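User: I'm putting together notes for a lab meeting next week and I want to include a structural view of one of the chains we've been expressing. I don't have a solved structure, so I'd like a prediction I can at least talk through. The sequence is below, exactly as it appears in our construct file.
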Amino acid sequence: MARTRTWATIALAGALGLSLAGCSSHGGKRAEDAREAAVQGRAAVDTPRWTFAMITHSGDGDTFWDIVQSGAKQAAVKDNIHFLYSHSAEAQQQAQLVDAAVDQKVDGIIVTLAKPDALKAAVARAEKAGIPVVTVNSGSAQSEAFGALAHIGQDETVAGEAVGDELDRRGRKKVLCVLHEQGNVGHEQRCAGVRKTFHGTVENLYVNGTDMPDVQSAVGARLQADPSVDAVVTLGAPYADTAVKAKADAGSRAEIDTFDLNAKVAGELKDGTLGFAVDQQPYLQGYEAVDQLWLHKYNANVLGGGKPVLTGPQIVTRDQAAALERYTKRGTR
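Assistant: Thanks for the context. Below is the predicted structure for the 333-residue chain, given as structure tokens.
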């Protein structure tokens, strides 16, 4: 235990290099003004310089979490917050990072609950230490029970249901739902939501999300084996382009759709390579999580009234892609 706790402490300490400098200025700034403040490295408030730690279940190189961090960092500058970010795709290591943040006596913690059972004890330790916790992105069903102040993200079942409805509108009959992280409760909820509202057939395909060639091979093999599959739904933006390549390998005519939005997805929506995307606004998740902790520390505010604060889903099609593309290119959508 001592060795793993040391690993987590070192990993969190490494996040110090990502912290943002800020100085006091005047308040009343809205989001665009706060963005300008972030560029200039100045705060929009004169509250104490609290330290907030965000610990997520992200693996390396996942662009979705770059967008979450972008929102969190902007809010941190605005709110005069010393912001720390760390992550691990391994649930036990993520829990150790939460423990390390508690040991460092941070003023607030933001955490994802993709694998909630593994994080329950760590979240409880934070709360016992008097550190407020906000959950973000995943774990809406467990957030209140775990004692978090609020949950900010989308309801994954509702998002899946929206996908099922959209697939019906498009006349699809058989869908491959590609799960790239086994054990992630949010991913299971997404595919279950699709199955709930979609009038056709939904088949789950589990792939190794850390190995893109394996993802491409698995999706391509399934499409080749079953030409009746007329839609593929990936659960993260980086996997959409891989599914497009798998479709070409298999000579399939299936439509490729995806959860989440980034610059690549926006471009492929615009040119018709992808059918639609489900945007949960990750920038907003990071921004509002930091703001919620700041509001609680400053004014004892709590968002949501015990219910999740929803940032999605928003179905994005070719019609909306052009308008959103400039925001994806700057890393805020």
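A couple of points you could mention at the meeting. The longest helix spans residues 282-299. The first strand starts at residue 51 and ends at 56.

User: Perfect, that's what I needed.
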